[in-house]
């Protein structure tokens, strides 16, 4: 089990956004739909770069039951992603973000750059999704504290190390992130934790993080899991990213049972159905 050294956190606090707070009280997890407006994302690179295609995909995911749309303008795939400048991210976001916000569901901005996140929050985004958990851009925590923005803090590593205890590493990372948040003045009610499936981890470590997700309940904060189409699935059953729906749903059902309150996915309709049916069955135990 994980022993945390952070200061005591409030019990199971939801992200401090009025809509999210209400939705997080439901029996089944929220579903976050992935909207990549990049040419090089690992599973759907280039499909939604054109603003009209991105908007159509956002509408489709909302119709399928997405509770949140997570929009990203820089690929963060672990292998081969091309870094882009803040201005390049903004050039991709400017034609589409306000349109997606106008569709009426909360929008999270998936960026590790404070300048991009600040612009997106000003444009109507509700949540920051930082794949480096407040530990990469030194301005991120201060910005989010000033804007009173909820933030998804994801575990990440610069390199894979198959010899480490991945759960201890995740716990230590979150402890550092929460200390940064405390120092900046971000309240715990605004924080969601994400173990970063597929990021800086072997396939075995990703599966361990899913299997032992309940240990992260020690932090007493909502958990988000995004296992959608990830490479670890192919280590069990060889498959291309767009052929990993079954493995993605299996991983997300296990994550929900382990305490995940938000599931991030490319395949919204199928994930919504799986989570709701599983919740209905569990309710009858």
Compose a concise summary of this entry:
By secondary structure, the chain is of the alpha/beta class. The chain has helices at residues 18-23, 51-63, 86-93, 97-101, 114-122, 140-147, 166-184, 203-211, 231-236, 245-257, 268-282; strands at 30-36, 68-72, 107-110, 127-130, 151-154, 191-194, 223-225, 260-265. Helix content is 39%, strand content 13%.
Structural summary, described in words:
This protein is an alpha/beta fold and 285 residues long. It is 39% helix and 13% strand. Strand 1, helix 2 and strand 2 form a beta-alpha-beta unit. Helix 3 runs parallel beside helix 5 and helix 5 runs parallel beside helix 6. It is globular, with a radius of gyration of 17 Å. The two termini are 27 Å apart.
List the domain count as a whole number: 1
Provide a count of the helices.
11
State the distance separating the first and last CA atoms.
Answer: 27 Å
Global morphology: globular
Name the CATH homologous superfamily: Dihydropteroate synthase-like
Task: Predict the CATH topology.
Answer: TIM Barrel
* Largest beta-sheet details: 8 strands, parallel
Report the CATH C-level class: Alpha Beta
Structural class: alpha/beta
- C-alpha Rg (nearest Å): 17 Å
């Amino acid at each position: 089990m994980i022993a945390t050294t952070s200061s005591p956190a409030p019990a199971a606090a939801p992200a401090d956004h009025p809509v999210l707070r209400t939705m997080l009280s439901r029996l089944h997890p929220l579903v976050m739909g992935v909207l990549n407006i990049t040419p090089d994302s690992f599973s759907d690179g280039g499909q939604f770069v054109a603003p009209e295609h991105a908007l159509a995909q956002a509408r489709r995911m909302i119709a399928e039951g997405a509770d949140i749309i997570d929009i990203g303008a820089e690929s963060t795939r672990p292998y081969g992603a091309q870094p882009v400048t803040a201005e390049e991210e903004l050039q991709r976001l400017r034609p589409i973000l306000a349109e997606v916000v106008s569709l009426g569901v909360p929008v999270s901005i998936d960026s590790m750059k404070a300048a991009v996140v600040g612009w997106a929050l000003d444009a109507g985004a509700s949540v920051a999704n930082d794949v480096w958990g407040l530990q990469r851009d030194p301005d991120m925590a201060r910005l989010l504290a000033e804007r009173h923005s909820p933030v998804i803090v994801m575990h990440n590593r610069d390199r894979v190390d198959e010899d480490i205890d991945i759960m201890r590493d995740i716990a230590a990372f979150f402890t550092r992130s929460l200390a940064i948040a405390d120092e900046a003045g971000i309240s715990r009610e605004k924080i969601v934790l994400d173990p970063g499936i597929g990021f800086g981890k072997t396939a075995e470590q990703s599966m361990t993080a899913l299997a032992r997700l309940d240990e992260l309940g020690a932090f007493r904060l909502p958990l988000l899991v995004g296992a959608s189409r990830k490479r670890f699935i192919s280590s069990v059953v060889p498959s291309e990213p767009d052929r990993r729906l079954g493995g993605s749903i299996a991983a997300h059902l296990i994550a929900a049972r382990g305490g995940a309150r938000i599931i991030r996915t490319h395949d919204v309709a199928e994930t919504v159905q799986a989570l709701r049916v599983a919740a209905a069955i569990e309710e009858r135990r």
